[in-house]
Amino acid sequence: MKHILRAAVMAVLIWAQPMAALAAELRGPVTNLPMPRFVSLKASEANARRGPSTAHRIDWVYRLRDMPLRVTAEYEHWRRVEDAEGKGGWMHYALLSGVRTALVTEAMTALRSHPTPEGRTMAYLEAGVVARLTQCEPDWCRLQVEGNRGWAPKSALWGVEAAEVFD
């Protein structure tokens, strides 16, 4: 019985390793960039369409410049995106920017001087504020918004993956 259980565990481990590697290496077929990935809205108004062409009907009109969006698919010059609520559609790539931004999801999020709960409070951010991401550590991200700079807990933001770290 122990041998059967050990063999089953080994089979799962052997199968899981290539699947994890495959997920980590998922790349867009057009750009060869990681998928999914976050981008921001370059325009002050942009249409999200039902399919990847101007012949498809418009499902959403976004009117918040710099809004973070998650790219989930690529087709020629089109990117399928979704917002923090999971809504979205296909957008022409010219409407999107690689500049990283985040949406504050928790009301009165403290922007701190250091990436710790003890850091001095620089400002409070309302839910719905869009801020520029300049750096992310395991639990905190450095933001820039309307002349204010500081750190916010990653858990209070949408537009960055939980495990994502960058300078």
Automatic annotation (TrEMBL):
Keywords in alphabetical order: Aminoacyl-tRNA synthetase, Ligase, Signal
One term of GO molecular function: aminoacyl-tRNA ligase activity
Highest taxon, organism lineage: Bacteria
Alphabetized Pfam families for the sequence: SH3_4
InterPro entries per the UniProt record, alphabetical: DUF1058
Signal sequence coordinates: 1-23
This protein's name: Aspartyl-trna synthetase
